[in-house]
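Quick entry between incubations.
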Amino acid sequence: MLRLSIPVRQALSRLTLPVMLLASLGLILAGRADRHLGDMLRTGLDDALAPVYRAAAAPVAAIEQDRGALGSWFRLHAENLALTKQNEALQRWRAVALALAAQNAALKSQLHFVPTPTPNFFAARVIADLGGLYARSVLVTIPREAHDIVNAIAMDGRGVVGRVVQSGSRSARVLLITDLNSRVPVAIGRHGERAIMEGQNSATPRLIYWAPGDPPREGQIVLTSAVGGVFPYGLPVGIVRYKGRNDPVVVPFAGLTRLRVLRLFEYDTQSAAPADPPGNPSHP
Amino acid sequence: MDGVELWRGLDRAARHALPATSILIMVVVLGIPGLLPWQPACRAGFVVASVFFWTLYRPASLPAPVVALLGVLLDLLGASPLGMWAALLLIEQAGIAAVRRSLVAQGFPLVWLAFAGVVLAVAAAEYATRSLLDLAILPPGPIITQAIIAILLYPLLAVVLIRAHRGAAAPEQA
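Done. Structure below.
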C-alpha cells in the first residue's frame, strides 16, 4: 500500500468532499443533458432490485391479510349491512346493464359493426412504490418473455391507472395518471368532448383544454380518447368533479393509493400515430 | 495474522460499515408498498436525518464518496433528477462538518434545533434545484411535508441511533 505523509493524507481527506460535490454537480448536468442516462441506470437498478422486492412483498401481504382477518371480526356486522345495500344497488344496475347490452347488440347488428380486436394483456404484481415527492410511479414485475412494453396501458379492476414508461427485462415502471408529468387525452360524457387530463401530484388530476363553450359537467364520465395514439378510445378513467369555479378535476375510478395487481394492455401501437404524447419523460 | 486478529479486524470493519449499510437497507425497504403513509417523504427524511447524525457523531464511518453513492441511489429509486440528492447530502455534510466541533458538545434540544435548521436549508435547496431543472414553479406542499416529517422523525431516530453509536457502530469496542 502507498504510504503517504500525514500532511498529504490530511490534504487529500479534505479534498474528498469538494471533489465528490463537483462530481455530483457534473452528474446533475450529465443527467440533464442526456435523459437516457438516468433512464438506463434506473431501469438497471429496478431490474436488479425486482427479486428483492418480490421476496419482501409476500410477507408484507401476509401481515396485511392477517390484520384484515382480525379487523374484520370487529367490523363484520357493519360490513355485511354495507354489502347487502351495495348488492341491492348492483342488482338494479345488472338489470340496466342487461337491457343495455341487448339494445347494444341489436344496434350493432343493424350497423354491421366491426368489433375492435382484443389487445394482449397480462397481470403484473406491484412490487414497489417508488414514487418521489413529485413523481407518482410504481414498479411492477413482468414475465421473462415479455418484450419491450413501453406505452402499455395499466388498469386495475376499476379504471385506468397509468402507462408504462420504462421496461427492463423483469420489471417495468408505470407512470400513474396523478403524476405531474402525466397528460392523458380524454373524452368526456356521452358525446366524447375532448380534453386533456393533467396530473397534479394530488389524488385528482385536472381537466384542461376543454372547449370553453361546452365545459365538462359535474358527474359526467371521463373515458380515454385515441388522440395521440397511445391510449385506445373508451377506457374508463373517472368522474368529473368541480373543485372550484372553472376548475374541473377527475376523480379516478382506480384505487391509486392501494395498487396491488395491475393489468397491462398492449394495444397495437404500430398502426397508431407515432407522435409522442406530451410529458413522456422517457422520450423528451 | 492469527485468528483473533482476523476476527477483530472483521468486527471493526462491520462496525465501520454499519451507518452506510443501515441507510442503504432502509432506503430499499421503504420502497415496499404500503408500509407507512407519505413513504417517499419518510425515505428522504430518514436519509437526511441519518447523514446528519453520523456526520456529527461518527464522521469517519460515513465518508463523502459513500454519501454521494447513497444520494445517487435515492435519486434513482425516488425518480428525482439524477445527482440532486448526492449534491444535497454532500452540502449538508459540509455544513455540519463546519460547525461540528461546537455542536457535538451540546445537549439534545440544541442539536435538534440545529437539525431543523439543516432540514429547512436542504428543503429550500431541493425546491430551488427541482424548480430550476424543471423550469417550472413546483407546488411547495410536498417539500414542506417532507421537511416536517424529517424534523419530527429525528427524536425517534435519535433514540435508536444513539444506542447504535455507543454499541454496534463503535469500532473502538471491537
